[in-house]
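Listing S7. Sequence submitted for prediction.
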Amino acid sequence: MHRLSARVVHVSLAVSLTAISLAPVFAATYFPSQNGPWYLLAGHMLTHLFDPAYDYSQHYAANLHAIPHILHTVLVSAFAVIVPTLWAQKLALSVYVIGLPLSIFYFLGAAAPKQRWLGFFSFLMIHTYCFYRGYHNFSLSIPLYFATLGCWLRALDRPSGVRYVVTLVLVSLTYLSHLFTFGILAASMGWYLLCTTRRFWYSTGTAIRFTWPGWLMMLEFVWLNSQINTWVDTTERVWLAPHTAIEYFFRKYFYTTSIPVYLIGAACSLWVIGLLGVAMYRAFRSDRPIWDALLSRPWLSLTCILGICYFFLPWKFLNWHYVNVRLVPFIVGLSLAAVGHHLATTSRPRLQRWYIGSCAVSTILISVLMFGEVRTMNGMLDEYTAAIPYLPRNSRLLPINSVNPQVGQVRPLTRAYEYYHISRGGVNGTGAAIYNTLVPVRYRVYPDDSTLPKYQDGFEVAELDGLLRYYDAILIWGYDPALVENLTGLGCETAFSSKNLVLLTCPVEDAAAESLHARTRTESTESLPAHPPRTTSISPPTSSK
């Protein structure tokens, strides 16, 4: 009876903390993740690629390959069929918020079933930096990693065709969410089998037998990148000094936009660090050799290996940023399983109560604080998007951020111009589609200086005049009266202005176009014909291999 009541309390508390953790996602109209609008637009375009109200198909094409960074985008597109796009994003983000603690509880149920309560720390892993940075595909891969490991452990323990198929599906979804996570998943399976069987070839073969769909899709992805890519930067390699890496383990994980949230998360993580330290001490103080002691504890040894990798992996590599920091959630989750094995032979109800209580209180405080942070950042986004109704439909838009305010470690306005294209169609030259093998849409013609040239600070009047031939509208965020004066002197007209935002429409080239241009500016949300194309020629895309 006591066990049943404890289980009911734990389930009720987990459900309540999940609901509280969802509150910041639904706190405002726009979820203020830095890169989120990139992938939101990509998902919106998948749903509306051939919608006559938009001109997406003129500029973009579907990129239907097994790309290992598209699952969140596809989820947004699927939800956008039944709800508005901004709500579709919230539903897709909710899959992560609900799935992360659920998957870690599920994983611990297979790896350390008597210590499943350790999973309450997972609620502190939700509102972390990568989530607000806008790495939503990677964020979604974290619960998929733990769910797949949990299902796989059960398939090893009680093999069946259904468990095998479900594991293959979860492996495929993990790959489609993020290649980095798929690699860690395959390595985790192989290492666990090596520790438990001490048979290298059996371990390797079994791991491949459970992960082969991901490897097949990876071969296709490698082939795709050998044909054309625009995102790989082979010169970008940055490593952190050891003391900086230690600092970033906490600061680049728990610190989003709020220092109090950072301090709460870092302080509560002392639970895991302390318990893990005790587990390592007991493992190493035995008479057995250290290596043998580690091999007998697969989750502890895997935690140690990933911890060492954290210090040796680069900070930036091939245009991937925060490479080593992305190991942190896996290190934390696996350490919970390692701690669970250490506690399996003891009963510590007081420790359990203090642990769960501190995790629950910390989760509530973090959710309340992030709710306020999201509302504050949404105020900035409300002002930034105020000119949407005044943008002519299907315009070529040049966004210029004269300033780009930072809230904590997040700059919520960095990609906010994409909301204009979500609502009004059109194109710019800096969307996520430029990463042509990382998103499920690509530019038909890749933007360069002969198609959609970039603005640079300090442009002279003649250079600004050259820009106007390529664009229908210019969006300027930040008070820059000299730039606005120069553009209006070149024939641009102010369609909307506020304290920090100016939307200018560019001059057109003939009377008929001018008449249509004037009509489109007077409309707000009605569907209008596409803006007439410019007369400049379009050059073929430049490929890089």
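Caption to Listing S7: primary sequence and predicted structure tokens for the chain studied. Residues 510-545 have pLDDT under 50 and may be disordered. The chain has two domains: 16-64+373-545, 65-224+233-346.
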